[in-house]
Amino acid sequence: MSKNKLTLIDNIDYSHIIVDLLTPFDYEKKFTKYSFNTIVLVALTTGLPLKGLTSLKWGDILEYDEKGRTKCLDRINLERGYDFSISNKVRKQILTFYTYRNQPRFKRLIIDDGFWKYQTRKKWLTKLNYTVCLCKTKESIQDKRLEILNDHLTQIIFGRRVIETCGYSNKIANFLKGLYNIKTSQQLFTFLGFKSRNDFKYKLSNISLAEGVNNRFSLGEPKSFLNENKHFLKLKKGSNEYYPFQHFQVFYDFLNILRLGYFDVKVKSVLVLLMISLTNGIRPSSLLKLIWSDFFVAGKNGILDCYTLKDSIKISRHQIKLDHNTKKKILLQFKCLFLNFDSEIDIDNYQLTILKELPDPKIHGLITIDNKLILKNEAPSLNDSCFITNKMNTLTQPSLNREIKNALREVGFQHADKFKTESTMIMYGRRILDLKGNHTPTIRALVKHFNRRSKKDLFKFLYIDFERGSIRPKYLGEFTNIFEHVLYDI
To answer: So which domain of life are we looking at (predicted)?
Structure first.
């Protein structure tokens, strides 16, 4: 497979594809589409070959319950004795497909002969490219560079998703080799489009954290593995102090709904700082040295000056990934620095364009709004600090805890006094374990991320109880199979 096509596969958003396949559409107008999508859905969630599934019958995945109602099987067994689990969300959609197909007999093929009568191998592989978003439009399908006419495309996508979500280990390698009937690890690497095991990097930044961002968790609440009732309103066991954190999603939603335009420069800075810290698990003080050139690239939009926001930035040993809502906050904060310019934000491309300088500005030097110092009436430099006080000075570590608490009080956060500088880090770590459970690669990555000495030290930092005489978390569950794990953020 060429380098360009591997890049296309690298950029495939598995979760987006599955959500799209699970989202209802106009069945009357797309009668053949839902038959084909049923097969693609099963292929992408089990790793079974798409071509082999074309002979799949409704009876292979459906059965009647004791009341004579149709239900989808929890597991299917089709090849070489392998048991393939079907997620509950996938089962519901298969039943929906079946209902709109007027409930054909179980002996009938899901994709009947009428469909394949007019479909060549190239046509249905092209259709698959469109379904998995390799081709975004009908016009782009004509571009041969964008097509991947590979019979194993769905298996490649599934295998790479397994490694992305579960990490790479001997257990995972044996599972995939058995699934794909491959003998050696090198053959597996080649099949999935990798050169060697060194290409397999389990990254915390790939974990979907926030609900509702990029359609994540759009089909229901995520499975929760951290069954502990600990938060700002709960006293620590045997102490008069409260826990210095709350659920990640609660604090994320609180920060996200705040409108930056209502607050002064310092509060804006603190809110964006907390958003970045929360979604990346980085101590807020580690972000204070960031300047605007770390976030933006200056360029031209035609003849107009524009600034484009980066997808991620590197700081020290951390790769900071910016989700959609965090990018919006950063863009709005940056736009507020151009008070004497007519500018507009392109949210789709995360770009700020300067249209023109406002004529004859009446205010020079420092600007005040509601008696609060805001900024200088001049174009900002990309070398300026991102997180500043109302006097345009960079926020500093010695006063940061106080500034965070003051800002949270100003925006009406009721637990401001209980907040600590490591609160966002704790919320981040607990959120990851809540989503991924007692998963060794995840725990190992968190130990490294927080620079902790051991698992026990990590659990203490995150206020997670562990069993007496053991380092096993007391209330932390785990996925029972790989098939559920790959769908954790659907």
So the answer is: Bacteria
